[in-house]
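Hi R.,

Here's the chain you asked about this morning:
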Amino acid sequence: MPESRGRQKQRPRRRPYVPAPAVKKRRASPRWYGPLTLGIMVLGVAVIVWNYMRGDNANPTVMFGGLGLIAVGFALATQWR
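And the predicted structure, written out as tokens:
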């Protein structure tokens, strides 16, 4: 019985070279940005400590305000260059 011819293998086509897009250099943060970030976080800690030192007059809303200041400080810290 005769054998059939095998199929010719197709060569994989190479994609054309596309250079990577140029990365824009991000500007550095101003000199006051770092101290502002740390200041906001320290202020949040100070608010929480002050609230607990009030004793019986401690207010949970003030504590959440201090936690909010700390969260804002962390959010600012992520954008610091």
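The chain has a mean pLDDT of 90.

Let me know if you need anything else.
M.
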